Amino acid sequence: MSSAYxxxxxxxxxxxxxxxxxxxxxxxxxxxxxxxxxxxxxEELALISKLAHERATAPRTGELLAECExxxxxxSDAAAAANLREIRRDYERATKLPSELVAExxxxxxxxxxxxxxxxxxxxxxxxxxxxxxxxxxxxxxxECYGAPEGGELYxxxxxxxxxxxxxxxxxxxxxPLREELTPLIAETTSSxxxxxxxxxxxxxxxRKQKELNAYVLERVGFDxxxxxxxxxxxxxxxxxxxxxxxxxxxxxxxxxPEALGSTMHEAGHALYEQGLPRAxxxxxxxxxxxxxxxxxxxSRLWENHVGRSRPYWEWLLPQARRVLGSQLDSVSVDDLYQxxxxxxxxxxxxxxxxxxxxxxxxxxxxxxxxxxxxDLDPADLPGAWNExxxxxxxxxxxxDSRGCLQDIHWSMGAIGYFPTYTLxxxxxxxxxxxxxxxxxxxxxxxxxxxxxxxxxxLREKVHRHGRRYPAAELCAKLTGAPLSHEPLMRxxxxxxxxxxxxxxxxxx
Amino acid sequence: MSSAYxxxxxxxxxxxxxxxxxxxxxxxxxxxxxxxxxxxxxEELALISKLAHERATAPRTGELLAECExxxxxxSDAAAAANLREIRRDYERATKLPSELVAExxxxxxxxxxxxxxxxxxxxxxxxxxxxxxxxxxxxxxxECYGAPEGGELYxxxxxxxxxxxxxxxxxxxxxPLREELTPLIAETTSSxxxxxxxxxxxxxxxRKQKELNAYVLERVGFDxxxxxxxxxxxxxxxxxxxxxxxxxxxxxxxxxPEALGSTMHEAGHALYEQGLPRAxxxxxxxxxxxxxxxxxxxSRLWENHVGRSRPYWEWLLPQARRVLGSQLDSVSVDDLYQxxxxxxxxxxxxxxxxxxxxxxxxxxxxxxxxxxxxDLDPADLPGAWNExxxxxxxxxxxxDSRGCLQDIHWSMGAIGYFPTYTLxxxxxxxxxxxxxxxxxxxxxxxxxxxxxxxxxxLREKVHRHGRRYPAAELCAKLTGAPLSHEPLMRxxxxxxxxxxxxxxxxxx
Lengths: 509, 509
Description:
The structure is a homodimer. By secondary structure, the first copy, chain A, is mainly alpha-helical. Chain A is built from 22 helices and 3 strands. Chain A has 2 domains: 3-146, no CATH class; 168-508, Neurolysin, domain 3 (Orthogonal Bundle), CATH 1.10.1370. In chain A, strands 1-3-2 form a 3-stranded mixed β-sheet. The interface between A and B is large, with 37 and 36 residues.
């Protein structure tokens, strides 16, 4: 290894160390931190982010990078070349931002999150509006520093942080046919004469017992508790803090045990990806990092929806649930539960939405955040615009902003460009799942016995271990032989809902 | 405020921000961190400590400090002058250490803590010995950087970090008469024909219920849960992480509910001090910080022993305990419990020792760590030396090192010079308590009603709000009208044990 390359990696390890500290501070803020510590936490995050950014963008880092790129021997190593390609990408982006803006952004976001929590609790949009305005302005400044790609828009510059190389226009092109096919499918299911019962999932179980069940499931899908932990938070999330330290949260409701299970499976999907990355060997290097949020979300959606909402999974899970939660579940059948977790019903809340209507929530947020960044939508007009879209897309009336535009944490964190990656994740997941199913013929039987090792091994081999070696589009093509498309997700939904809602039968009848 | 003073305070605020991050990392390591994250955590702590040290010792900091000291207007303000006196002290100490040593020390200590956990679990001193040796060497290097005070020894340079201005010799002078009076008192109690029963405290109660009781007590003594939290850890501790963020831990045993209560009161004492410091106004300044560990420990000992082991306190607590823990306690009397928490019985474990024998544990550690630093005791010979002293001082045989020289975390953290502050704390506490009692005549009645507001207000006013304005010796003289002495503690113990063990009666008989 050349000395320049070694020094470069050492520098990046320092940056990663600081970033991991920031990540822990963020995790703590959402799970453990006492309320009165919010102000100092914002200062801490601002300072650590600034120090990490200064280190990443130091002139010496640029010199080392250029020296490595000019070194034929280094570049002839495929791993090093992939690393350097991505280091260059990160460096170019990072050096476009002044460290002061990074610190200001981080501090504002950290304070805004606390303001959002209060505003959401009181359903008081007016209290949050100045923060939103400030964040949109900061996002705009950040996007201007990055600059729009040729022929693109400022939004693309932000999106690029979450989903490298993707543009708003490309997303529109994928979302449009998805929307076109989703809308009639949702209409068919909601108007079907056969409607599965939700009652089976609404039995009450003590949270203590639910925790035991969730911990059991988490371990069974392969989460390493020696290298991670699970806690409770208002908004479930996953944090790949450092090698050997991946933490997830979930949330419980006494009267809806499958919800916590779904949330656990979702976050477990993220966490299994983090635990499967070669982080220890490549700490601080792109080869030890995840590709982008779309692929990250594909891992969570795959476990949440393709495993966790499948019939074989519930065949295995129901007896486990009976054992832990008790005899109340004796009268419930696998089909009851399987159907109840796949009910299509427009909901005001994104994170409580079903697989089919979920993407409509994302499209709405994508459109509104893009409009805010363009200046076409004033932050003050957000609630009105939100409520109109909910009425138009989901046929629901928003009773208050806490169940409307205040429901999500993202904008309060200054994360504009993040939302579309959720649906990209669903699309990647469906497409990857088809490839995986083709290669593991007895998958359903395995899952019905609670065996998830083959799924995890496949994902480890095909996705996790590569880190950022392949960009998302290339990885997708490599895995599935095709570019990203809305079709696998529509096939998956169509097939499942046809059977549950007996849509075929209707058509035949 | 002069611009140099403002800039100096701003710099120190940055140092405090980094120190608070390190403190959170340490808290997390003891309470939440998954086992496999230990290596990265050590790197994180090393880097953050190094950055904080670099900032604190930057030449610009020294220039600003000198400029302020030369500014008659700044120095004419008593608060600023006190701040600058202590900033100078800190600066002089910090600049004597190279940042590299700070980082190496921090990283070694962080790894050694993990090694110690393993070694203690297995009672495997050999596994810990190389770490201990490394830490003693590092402590020696650190002490040499600081330099021994005139006429003093290297140990003093380390002690000065925990108990400013105190020397090993002064400690010897206080410990000697204490030992002389403690030894016969312990002999009298242990040989008294009347022996209180321990059985009353050994009833079993679920930890869930104990947690509820401890949380209730914590709130009643005045701990602000909006600005702190309580968790569980192997070794209970308190961490004043930042303004608005003071965290404590405790530990539970099903068959000893008073132990957790004692541990909670102890840590609450530390935490009430932290919450009472003017940290928000003086964040990063000596005026917002605690005086030293002796005074800090006096706060914990005061609440643990003078409040939490008093009869009036148990008059109040027993009905609360019955309410939360259940009817098992109906047959237990206040005197039963009061006596059971004051039993004098030599114990192998420091943190489980009674008020009287506790200080013998400290004297042993003080002597052994001083000998290790001087090179008079090789780390390999620690178990032998330990076991001999335990036999001589407490009449006990050490069955394994996990109940011997591996029981405490301190040396694994590189904390040599820390232990004596525990007994200094007990001495300060007894002396301060006498002053407090003299000024609150109906204190016993208040405590028997579960009213602790007067105690807290007195401590806030006399101790907490001053930060480091007065050095420990000056504060002690101001509060009690006398220099630190072993006599108040001996009076306290003598009076209590005379009554419980009926020693007076014996003498009279």
